Amino acid sequence: MNVLTIIKEQVLGLIEKNRLGDIPVQIKVRNLTIEEAIGTPEDHDYPLVKGRERLLEAEILGCRGQAFTDTPGAFSGTLNEVFALPLTDNRNRAVFIATINAVMRHLGLAGKTIHCKDTSPPLCASNLAEYIRSNFGTPRIAMIGFQPRMIQALSGVFEIRATDLDKDNIGQMKFGVLIQGPDQTQENIAWCDLAVVTGSIVVNGTIDELSIKKPAIFFGVTVAGPSVLLGLNRYCPYGS
Prior knowledge:
By secondary structure, this protein is of the alpha/beta class. The protein folds into 2 domains: 3-106, no CATH class; 120-235, Rossmann fold (3-Layer(aba) Sandwich), CATH 3.40.50. It has helices spanning 3-17, 34-38, 47-50, 79-83, 90-106, 120-136, 148-155, 185-191, 224-230, and strands at 26-31, 54-60, 63-69, 75-78, 141-144, 160-163, 173-174, 177-180, 194-198, 216-219, 234-235. The strands form 2 sheets. It has a 7-stranded mixed β-sheet.
């Protein structure tokens, strides 16, 4: 059974337990503008700002949940229709995960489902370095998913390797770190003491390919609900 199927079954159980299925819920998922998603940050190398990714937002009974995707698309339908979507592409998976985050927010089971803005991303990254030092010492880090401010903050403190799916990043030096392709991910995990992983793995289809049997930190809003359901260590201090 794949991870998204496990997530779906758990949330369907929560929906039944809380009788959400009895409510004619209308889900509206929309693409956020750059300013809505991340505000006006000083740096312009974020995937959102460069147009490599978009942030989808779902709303259910006044509660919002978000998810990153490289294949944006609006959606309007019922909760049952969301759960009937085939989770075979990034667009459907993003709609599904954004909705999961909104549902979990509504049930009070997940927080920080809205992306931080403006000056918060650099603070998030610098705090991550302190969080790792306090909880893990000076580990060798395998970063899965390029996040510029985090690479910038961590590379000056820890030995780090990084992989990404974006072909524009692969082979490039970013803040002294060579960004490798996804074919190097498992080798880097075997090398590291700590994995720092983008929450987007639940949308981009790579979560079932990863085998992480070491301490790991999953970052971002996308993994808000899934981290609770799967028992993952999530880092997202400035989300709302």
